[in-house]
Amino acid sequence: xxxxxxxATYEDALAYIASHERFGSKLGLETIGRLLDRLGxxxxxxxxxxxxxxxxxxxxxxxxxxxxTAAGYKTGMYISxxxxxxxxxxxxxxxxxxxxxxxxxxxxxxAAADAMEAAGEGVVxxxxxxxxxxxxxxxxxxxxxxxxxxxxxxRYDATNIIDxxxxxxxxxxxxxxxxxxxxxxxxxxxxxxxxIKNGCPVVAYAEQPPEALHTIQAHCxxxxxxxxxxxxxxxxxxxxxxxxxxxxxxxxxxxxPMTGVHFAKNALSAIETLKLLAxxxxxxxxxxxxAGIAGKPMAxxxxxxxxxxxxxxDGAHNPDGVEKLCxxxxxxxxxxxxxxxxxMLRDKDYGKCIPEIAQRSDVFIATTPPSxxxxxxxxxxxxxxGKAPLVCIAQRTQMAFISAMRFAKPGDVVLCCGSLSFLGxxxxxxxxxxxxxxxxxxx
Length: 443
Hints:
With 443 residues, the protein is an alpha/beta fold. Strands 4-3-2-5-1-6-7-8 form an 8-stranded mixed β-sheet, with helices on both faces. Strands 12-13-17-14-15-16 form a 6-stranded mixed β-sheet, with helices on both faces. Strands 9-10-11 form a 3-stranded antiparallel β-sheet, covered by helices on one side. A hairpin with a 2-residue loop joins strand 3 and strand 4 (95-96). The chain is built from 15 helices and 17 strands. It has helices spanning 10-19, 30-38, 57-70, 99-118, 126-140, 178-181, 185-192, 210-223, 261-279, 286-293, 319-332, 350-358, 377-384, 397-407, 420-440; strands at residues 48-52, 75-78, 90-92, 95-96, 145-149, 167-170, 202-204, 227-228, 235-241, 244-249, 252-256, 303-306, 310-314, 338-343, 363-366, 390-393, 413-418.
């Protein structure tokens, strides 16, 4: 294994990662395979649960990892993107792995990547760097399990360099990243199914579109893999409000702090995956499963970050995600005045997403996310015009959020939704406002 650079700081590590964002996303396993060879293949020998899908990957991953942690296992969790801090992406036992540990792993990767480039073996991408660093962290920390969320697709995603996982999970499949994954649900599902290895049991989201489900079934048959689909006839919602969702599944009651029927259905995939592990001999009991489902909510998944006015963050950014968010709005926020802050990326199907949110908004504030792929606020506002009674533009996240808080009256809801790339800024701005209010009583 290549030697890491001495005295490297966490800030240096983040700068190195950022310097590779310009290489974009490059699907394929050859480069990361060579990189991991130079690192001693840290992924070998780890027990993985691999999660792919269009929507629901993050919450499903978190519930599985949370339950394994509650069962007493040292558990790695790999997710993307981060909402506020990079360290969210590489976690152990549901907490960031630590800046020093992450920095050491990143610079071990850098040494190997530099040697590869010098040898003419290719240039690594940002995602390949971070994925390899995560493998190093999980190996060096002696993780019993690592729950991996794919970055894009599945077949050629860097995380798919792993050998046969203990289980593969396919969350909800819908239209997104069509330029890369294909323009039909069958093609998109086939890419997600690339994580299915021979004989690896597979859990699929309970409410897949027929085209996606048929594709998943065909891949499972070809791989000799058992397919488990949660039983919707054994599922019912007990309660749904801004404090979370309670539901029954196969006679047991569970509670998740995430608000939305779709989050409860994501939990069904987690429950079935954990039951598979229990049947395989791992010590995962009902109490651990319940604890995992009830664990801390994923950031920006209908996340309530303030009570009065109620402030909600949701990263819905494609038509399926927006449809589920709208179902939750119609159920939970009915009759309440909604002030929306929305920012989208240009490579999403924003033409279908923005009007749906706008027509449920009393005030709609368009903003430009801090991303080179951002859809300009004026284009977002143009699609909201005529749908919401009042449409405003605030270019920067901070001003958009402050404007929303000024519009809000007691009992109102401030809903920040769209690209995850600006939602972290909403949280940061709220903390600033709380601090200023404590000093100067600005609200």
